[in-house]
From TrEMBL, chain A:
Transmembrane found in the keyword field: yes
CDD domains listed in its UniProt record: TM_PBP1_transp_TpRbsC_like (cd06580)
GO cellular component, one term: plasma membrane
InterPro entries reported in the protein's UniProt record: ABC_transp_permease (IPR001851)
Domain of life assignment: Bacteria
PANTHER family assigned: ABC TRANSPORTER PERMEASE PROTEIN, SUGAR ABC TRANSPORTER INTEGRAL MEMBRANE PROTEIN-RELATED
GO molecular function terms listed in the Swiss-Prot or TrEMBL record: transmembrane transporter activity
Provenance organism: Actinoplanes siamensis
Transmembrane segments: 45-78, 90-111, 144-160, 193-210, 269-286
Keyword terms: Cell membrane, Membrane, Transmembrane, Transmembrane helix
Pfam families xrefs: BPD_transp_2
Protein's name according to its UniProt entry: ABC transporter permease
UniProtKB/TrEMBL annotation, chain B:
Cited PANTHER family: ABC TRANSPORTER, PERMEASE PROTEIN, GUANOSINE ABC TRANSPORTER PERMEASE PROTEIN NUPP
Transmembrane segments: 53-74, 81-98, 104-122, 134-159, 191-212, 233-261, 320-339
Topology in membrane: Multi-pass membrane protein
Subcellular location: Cell membrane
Source organism of the structure: Actinoplanes siamensis
Protein name: ABC transporter permease
């Protein structure tokens, strides 16, 4: 019994750690997609931020400074994406893939040349609660930025569902023509959403680097950006379900890592591909229950 | 188009050329030496040129396919996965089918094309049934394809190599029989002209003719340019797009078979056999603005960057800067993408 | 609000020519005119979507400039859009809030919508999703959205085109309340004479960019308005002058073959059990105010939409409308209303556009025969007088008239039994219109059944032998052109008769 609880605790802990970067970025991507942009560049935002956070943490000696710069870099990638796709009307998928390639090349080069050092933020543990059985350690002994999620998730929800900005943003994502007629600057709102997406994806990437791992390795995000997109799709463009998707994906990854060590055989390919399969299945099966923005991935250009 | 368009492109081209040099200089290297190495490694001698041409073949195939789907208004970005599925099917055919001699090569190429074509067509089907965005589903299916191949080469009853004695089996397939390999064309001292390149060039020309000179190509182009007018003219737009997507996948799959059967790989199916050819091939098509004949020189350029990049690594400069150049150059070409298309009647 | 001497030109066309319009608070002002009379341009100027070439706008005696939609909104000018400004997946109150500014206070917004709905007697649930609402309910939301902005001038453009009779009546009650109790000015743009006479206080009639009548509504009659709207003299003088009524082909013998039969066509939105027959050799005009289902009919006959019910028969045989190109194969050619949408491919060459629908004629089983393609394109271009620098240049480079000729040439090259021309003269200059009319008449004399869908009365009167009027997606009247006059038709299409 004791070992089962222990195993469960290990898997939960690692699941949460693996899900946290996804959750940050998903709070960003969710907003961008509600505004109508399906930006593949989340990967670039996360990877670039991961690198910069480690580099800046190395320079300043402060992991917090690293996190902040990571957020800024993510926002920078977001604004580049916004300018290219919602100002100069380059295909958004193309922009995303190119930004991913660009950032992957740059960070790989710089990481090889610069050999960044190790830096990590502090672990915090919540007294009392951390001693709870099974759930205590996974939930209450964490690197502190994880707890930012407690504020950011409600904020993302509030922004989209309750603020005027969010209302206009949703209008831009659902029906850009109508939004335009009402006097909303559609492409501006979409660029702003991308900026927010960049900042949060950047936070996710930076957290991965200075929070969890403590260092940067080449291509360290390894497709997490695409996982985030899969999570938003799986969640049917609802924030709660999107985050549930992140948790499921994180747990699947944790299982893949933990089970062999515990003596179970496991089909790791199935676990790795589960998120993408689930996202595809969600699109095929649950179309009616989704809140897919009406103009998702459709550019908006004013007719002269 | 915004008036800033051309300026943006110019700025990006400049960045593509200056930024890598700057980075090399800042990190203590010599930009000119790196450039020399890049050229040396790709065009310097017969071996280098051979290497470059080897890379050009699969790039060309992927790019030509991308032209087909893009021209029909369908945006396929899952070539990387389609390359993998093609390699998988090619390996399965090459290892399992008892076809004698060079005919086996043909079977490998066809199996790869069929499998990857069907794989890509699934996206068209999902779009037809449930309106799933094709760009999204082709992208997601790329990650599935990676795991399918990884599964195949780690599963003994599928394609994992047979164990020899004590050694543990690696995650790869057995080596393809020699009959299934792409040999060299002609006999040139030093220079290797692989059959794969011939396949690529012939396919590019065939597709160019098909797009510009046949009824099929015409219908496809009309469907891409104006779906409403196409329907009015009796063209079943969705079906035409689905076929174009399948062709695009089939050609990417054929690229996978070429990778598998040419000296670019160990002639074994491995999880990383696609070496990003699918992504790069898509960029080639973007730079060539979806014109099949233009993909030939552009694929050449990208192959130069690849072969040169590998050589660069040998001289101590990390090759990743080449990816930066590729991405920025492509960006420069797509930034003024609103440039008016010329008519297809030359 | 006063508009003085507003003039707006588009190239050679004068859309508004020295228009004066005074809008008083507490008054519903009817603005009446045919399509192209300049009403929309005038309103677009008022909304800041266009700037006038000359003329001035005063508000409460002070001159103002309206540079853009924001300025217009700040001046209290607001328009109830017909179809475009609601976001379906959002709720009613969210849509209403979208038009406002400042933080979104849910409870207050909801209460505001509820209060406004009650005040104006517009029953609506603030929490309903707009996508689930009927056309009439959507109209209420549009109206609420405008009224919540507290406008001084409220513009309504053809507000009743999608409404049922009782919904229209309800709308006018609300408008009456808006002007009487809240002292706003309302501009009601309409084709429907009955609406204008029952709902407005003053009426201005525009024709060809000028104001031709300005009067208190009580001092006028529907007959007078219809007469003024259409005009006694023919405005398309040059084009119609060459085609006087007298040369219209005699009505085909009663035994003439039925070439096109539409039976019970129903499609959402727009078509409601539409039945119509066109015989070989006659030109039938389908006349009606814009937005009464003509566009849906055009889409069905172009093969773009499959109707919910009903059949299209060409030469007696029912056409399977689900098969792409079936109509064309059955012998129905169409000059669609929106050329650029479904008629042509701008980025293909002129030659390719000319052969697009009949590719089989210029190709073998697989390959296109470039030489045959060119020869055929050249022949068609010569026959139809298409002037292009080169037949290989993109169609985009051609003038509107030449593009229209390309469509006509292509559709007629298949020797169809039926030709449908939807608003064919729109956007063409006088010379091109003249040429087009001559072609249509030649078609009829060659034994083709021609269906002319148009909102231009002169066109209908000059070309057709029989007129069917369309109102809310069905045919409401049919009469030989010889018995038709502008007044009678205006009454029919205004839904009076």
């Amino acid at each position: 019994m004791n070992t089962v609880a222990g195993d469960l605790e290990t898997i939960l802990s690692s699941g949460i750690r693996l899900a946290a970067p996804l959750a940050f970025a998903a709070c960003g991507e969710y907003v961008a997609e509600r505004a109508g942009t399906l930006n593949v560049s989340v990967e670039a935002m996360m990877l670039g931020a991961a690198f910069c956070s480690i580099a800046v943490a190395g320079l300043t000696g402060s992991a917090t400074a690293g996190l902040l710069v990571g957020v800024l870099l993510g926002a920078l990638v977001g604004s580049a994406h916004g300018a290219l796709s919602h100002r100069w009307h380059v295909n958004s998928f193309v922009v995303g893939l190119l930004l991913n390639a660009l950032v992957l090349g740059l960070t790989s080069y710089l990481a090889t040349v610069g050999n960044p050092s190790r830096h990590q933020v502090e672990l915090v543990s919540v007294p009392g609660l951390r001693d709870l059985p099974v759930l205590g350690a996974p939930l209450f002994v964490e690197r502190w930025p994880v707890y930012l999620l407690l504020a950011l998730v409600p904020l993302a929800w509030w922004l989209v569902e309750r603020s005027r900005w969010g209302l206009e943003l949703r209008a831009a994502g659902e029906n850009p023509e109508a939004a335009h007629m009402t006097g909303i600057r559609v492409n501006l709102r979409r660029r702003q959403a991308l900026l927010w997406c960049g900042a949060l994806a950047g936070l996710g990437g930076a957290y991965l680097a200075v929070g969890e791992v403590g260092s940067f390795n080449q291509n360290m995000t390894a497709g997490r950006g695409y996982l985030v997109i899969a999570a938003v799709i799986f969640g049917g463009w609802r924030l709660g379900r999107t985050l549930a998707g992140c948790a499921v994906f994180g747990l699947a990854d944790a299982l893949r890592l933990a089970l062999p060590a515990l003596g179970h055989t496991v089909n790791s390919q199935l676990l790795i591909s589960a998120p993408y399969l689930l996202a595809l299945l969600a699109m095929l099966l649950f179309t009616t229950r989704q809140r897919r923005p009406g103009a998702l991935a459709q550019p908006f250009r004013r007719t002269p | 188009m915004t008036r800033a368009g051309p300026w943006v492109s110019a700025a990006i081209v400049t960045a593509a050329l200056v930024l890598p040099g700057l980075l090399i200089a800042v990190t203590g290297g010599s930009p000119s030496a790196a450039l020399r190495a890049l050229i040396q490694g790709s065009l310097g001698d017969a071996t280098a040129v051979s290497q470059t041409l080897l890379y050009a073949a699969p790039l060309l195939l992927v790019a030509v396919g991308a032209c087909c789907s893009a021209r029909s208004g369908v945006f396929n970005i899952g070539q990387e996965g389609q390359v993998l599925i093609g390699a998988l099917a090619g390996a399965a055919a090459g290892l399992r089918l008892a076809v004698p001699g060079p005919a086996l090569l043909l079977v490998v190429l066809l199996a790869a094309a069929l499998a990857a074509g069907a794989w890509a067509w699934l996206s068209a089907l999902m779009n037809r049934l449930r309106g799933v965005d094709i760009a999204v589903s082709t992208l997601l299916m790329t990650f599935l394809a990676q795991q399918v191949v990884a599964f195949a080469v780690t599963t003994p009853w599928l394609l994992q190599e047979s164990r020899l004695g004590e050694a543990a089996a690696l995650p790869q397939s057995n080596k393809l029989p020699s009959g299934a390999l792409l040999g060299s064309l002609g006999d040139h001292p030093g220079l290797q002209l692989n059959l794969g390149l011939a396949v690529g060039v012939v396919v590019a020309m065939l597709v160019a003719v098909a797009l510009d000179r046949t009824r099929w190509g015409f219908r496809l182009t009309v469907a891409g340019l104006n779906p409403a007018a196409a329907r009015h003219a009796g063209i079943p737009v969705a079906a035409v797009g689905g076929i174009a997507l399948a062709v695009s996948g089939a050609l990417a799959g054929m690229a996978g078979a070429v990778l598998l059967a040419s000296p670019l790989s160990t002639n074994r199916l491995q999880p990383d056999i696609s070496i990003d050819i699918g992504w790069d091939g898509l960029l080639v098509a973007l730079v060539a603005r979806n014109r099949p004949l233009l993909t030939i020189p552009v694929a050449g350029l990208f192959a130069v960057l690849r072969a040169g990049g590998n050589f660069l690594a040998a001289t101590g400069v990390p090759p990743y800067l080449v990816d930066v150049v590729k991405a920025l150059l492509t960006l420069a070409f797509v930034a003024p993408a609103v440039m008016r298309r010329r008519s297809v009647v030359a | 609000m006063r508009l003085r001497g507003i003039t707006k030109r588009y190239g050679a066309v004068v859309a508004c020519d020295g228009v004066d319009l005074t809008l008083e608070r507490g008054e519903i002002h009817g603005l009446l005119g045919e399509n192209g009379a300049g009403k929309s341009t005038l309103m677009r100027i008022l909304l800041g979507l266009e700037t006038q070439d000359s003329g001035a706008i005063d508000r409460d005696g002070r001159a103002v400039t309206i540079a853009g939609p924001r300025e217009a909104a700040a001046l209290g000018i607001s328009m109830v859009h017909q179809h475009f400004s609601l976001v379906d997946p959002l709720t009613v109150w969210e849509n209403v809030a979208l038009g406002r500014s400042g933080p979104v206070r849910r409870a207050a917004e909801r209460a505001g919508v509820r209060a406004a709905a009650q005040r104006y007697g517009l029953a609506i649930d603030p929490d309903a999703r707009v996508g689930t609402l009927s056309a009439g309910e959507r109209q209420r939301v549009e109206l609420l959205k405008c009224l919540r902005r507290d406008p001084t001038v409220l513009i309504m453009d053809e507000p009743t085109s999608v409404l049922t009779r009782s919904e229209s009546a309800e709308l006018f009650t609300v408008l009456r309340r808006v002007v009487a109790a809240e002292h706003r000015a309302v501009v009601l743009i309409s084709h429907k004479l009955a609406e204008i006479t029952t709902a407005t206080d003053r009426v201005t009639v525009m024709r060809a960019g000028r104001v031709v009548l300005r009067r208190a509504t009580t001092a006028t009659t529907e007959a007078e308005l219809a007469r003024e709207m259409v005009g006694r003299e023919v405005t398309l003088g040059a084009a119609v002058g060459v085609l006087p009524h007298a040369t219209a082909p005699a009505s085909p013998a009663a035994s003439a073959q039925t070439a096109l039969r539409l039976r019970g066509l129903t499609a959402r939105p727009g078509l409601d059990d539409l039945c119509l027959t066109v015989h070989a050799g006659e030109i039938v005009g389908l006349y009606g105010a814009e937005g009464n289902g003509q566009k849906s009919l055009g889409d069905v006959l172009s093969g773009l939409t499959v109707p919910d019910a009903g059949t299209v028969e060409v030469a007696g045989a029912s056409v399977d409308l689900r098969r792409p190109g079936a109509l064309s194969a059955a012998g129905l050619g169409i000059v669609p209303e929106d050329r650029h949408h479904a008629g042509v491919v701008l980025d293909l060459s002129v030659a390719e556009n000319l052969v697009m629908t009949r590719l089989g004629d210029v190709s073998g089983r697989v390959f296109i025969d470039r030489r045959r393609l060119r020869r055929r394109a050249r022949a068609l271009a010569d026959e139809y007088g298409i002037t292009a620098a080169s037949l290989d240049s993109p169609l985009r480079d051609l003038s509107g008239g030449n593009q229209q000729r390309v469509v006509l040439a292509r559709e007629l090259s298949g020797r169809p039994r039926v030709l449908v021309a939807a608003q064919p003269s729109r956007g063409l200059d006088v010379g091109a219109v003249e040429d087009l009319y001559a072609r249509l008449r030649r078609c009829a004399s060659d034994g083709i059944a021609v269906l002319l869908i148009s909102t231009e009365l002169e066109e209908i009167l000059a070309l057709t032998t029989r007129i069917a009027t369309i109102f809310r997606g069905r045919i409401v009247g049919e009469l030989p052109t010889a018995q038709a006059d502008g007044e009678r038709l205006a009454l029919l299409t205004g839904g009076v008769a």
